[in-house]
C-alpha cells in the first residue's frame, strides 16, 4: 500500500466520526486562514482524501458552519469547569475557572475573527433555537457550583456573585473594547473576593 492510499482510507469510521475528524482538523486552519482555507488543506490536516470531506459535508460552507458550531460548543469548557476540585480555596477555584473561560473565548474569537476578516459574515442556516440561552445557563450553573461550597461565608447570593464575577472578567461581552487582558486574572479574583479598599 502506498502512503497516499493509506492516507486516503479511513476504515471503520462512521460518517459522524469522519465529520468530527474533519472539524477537528479544520478548527486551527480556519483560525489561521478564515474562509480562505481550502478543502485540500483540511484533508491533508485530517489525513484523508479531499473527496472524503464531501461524503460527509455538502460543500466547504457546510464545513465552515460545523467549525463555527464546534468553536461555540461549550462542552469542553463545561468539562473543564466541572473538573475543578471543590476542596481548593475559593480564590484558586475562581482563577482556574477564569483560565478555562478565557481559553474558551479565545478559541471562539480566533475562529469568528478569522472568518469575519476574510469576508464571511454569518451562517446560511438558522442557529438551533435556544442554543445560546442553554449555553449561557449551563455556564452560569457551572460557575455557581464552583462558588457554592463557600455560600455560608458570602455576603451576597451565589447567583448574584456569578453575574458579578463574569461581568468583572469579561467586560468586553457587555460593551467594553475587546483586547488583551491588562489586569492579571489573579488580581481580578482578589478584587472580586476582597475588594479594592484595605480593611
TrEMBL record:
> SUPFAM superfamilies recorded for this chain?
Homeodomain-like
Keywords in UniProt for this one?
DNA-binding, Transcription, Transcription regulation
What Pfam family is a match for this entry? TetR_N
Transcription regulation in keyword set: yes
Q: Which residues bind DNA?
A: 38-57
Gene3D superfamilies in the cross-refs: Tetracycline Repressor, domain 2
GO MF term set = DNA-binding transcription factor activity; transcription cis-regulatory region binding
The record places domain HTH tetR-type at 16-75
Transcription listed as a keyword:
yes
Q: Which InterPro entries match?
A: Homeodomain-like_sf, HTH-type_TetR-like_transc_reg, HTH_TetR
Q: What is this protein called?
A: Transcriptional regulator, TetR family
Species per Swiss-Prot/TrEMBL record: Asanoa ishikariensis
Q: What is the lineage of its organism?
A: Bacteria, Bacillati, Actinomycetota, Actinomycetes, Micromonosporales
Amino acid at each position: 500500500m502506498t502512503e497516499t492510499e493509506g492516507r486516503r482510507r479511513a476504515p471503520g469510521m462512521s460518517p459522524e466520526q469522519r465529520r468530527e475528524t474533519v472539524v477537528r482538523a479544520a478548527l486551527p486552519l480556519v483560525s489561521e486562514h478564515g474562509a480562505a482555507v481550502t478543502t485540500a488543506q483540511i484533508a491533508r490536516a485530517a489525513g484523508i482524501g479531499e473527496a472524503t470531506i464531501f461524503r460527509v459535508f455538502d460543500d466547504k460552507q457546510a464545513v465552515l458552519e460545523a467549525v463555527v458550531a464546534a468553536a461555540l460548543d461549550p462542552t469542553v469548557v463545561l468539562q473543564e469547569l466541572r473538573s475543578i476540585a471543590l476542596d481548593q480555596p475559593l480564590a484558586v477555584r475562581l482563577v482556574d475557572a477564569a483560565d478555562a473561560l478565557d481559553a474558551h473565548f479565545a478559541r471562539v474569537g480566533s475562529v469568528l475573527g478569522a472568518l469575519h476578516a476574510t469576508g464571511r459574515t454569518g451562517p446560511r442556516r438558522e442557529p438551533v433555537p435556544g442554543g445560546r440561552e442553554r449555553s449561557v445557563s449551563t455556564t452560569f450553573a457551572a460557575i455557581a457550583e464552583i462558588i457554592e461550597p463557600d455560600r455560608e461565608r458570602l455576603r451576597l447570593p451565589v447567583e448574584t456573585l456569578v453575574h458579578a464575577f463574569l461581568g468583572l472578567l469579561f467586560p468586553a461581552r457587555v460593551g467594553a473594547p475587546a483586547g488583551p487582558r491588562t489586569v492579571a486574572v489573579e488580581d481580578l479574583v482578589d478584587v472580586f473576593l476582597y475588594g479594592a479598599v484595605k480593611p
